[in-house]
Give the backbone structure.
Amino acid sequence: MERLQKVIAQAGITSRRKAEQLIIEAKVKVNGELVTELGTKVSPSDKIEVEGIPIEREEKVYYLFYKPRGVISAVDDDKGRKVVTDYFQEIAERVYPVGRLDYDTSGLLLVTNDGEFANLLMHPSFEIKKTYVAKIAGIPSKQELRKLEQGIKLEDGMTAPASAKMLSLDKRKQKSIVELTIHEGRNRQVRRMFEAIGYKVQKLRRESFGTLKLKGMNAGEKRELTPHEVKQLRALAQNGEKGLRQ
Ligand code: URA
């Protein structure tokens, strides 16, 4: 038995708090009866309707996907471009990506049908570490990388402290590979941070997301998360880094 608001949130309709609001506003029925009590518990066989529409209660699945470049982080695209869910066609559950990577960015993306988990991870206060490897036109100096670490002004405000590491450089070709770890998830953030110090990102890959890493996978591959990995991510989302030590 689970709490009604949790089941509604897990169906991906809304957050748990908004689900509570829907219950209070008498918009939720269980087995055809209006329910306005927040403590109500439901079993897997109970039929739940929100504003007259039955909710889907699928088994929850969690995948780590290595998104290739040239794929949209979405379930469909009006221009007919390749989307993440094209790689999940053999799976019965209706999954979607958690957050997004740019069309041109490759790397680690979580894919699930657990709406509550997705909401939790995408919440702005959720400051999980994400590590990116960027191929840069030019060679940023130590001081320039330091600026990225300390926080840099973008049009949507200062960036939070980050860490940047030069992985390799080619003086002759004037190119370098830099690893950047950030805790935020603003639109095109890594590309914009490098632009702000005068460099263009030519290629970008997300190598890690919290405790998860891409290692050993090829672009286009996916694997299911273990129950432990799902728990670790929940702990990170709810308690920050210290959640992992509990
Ligand atoms: N930063 C970017 O610039 N692009 C991404 O896809 C992710 C982070």
Remarks:
- The two ends are 26 Å apart (CA to CA).
- The helical segments are 4-10, 16-24, 115-122, 142-150, 189-196, 227-239.
- The chain has a mean pLDDT of 92.
- Residues 101-102, 105, 188-191, 204 surround uracil (CB under 6 Å).
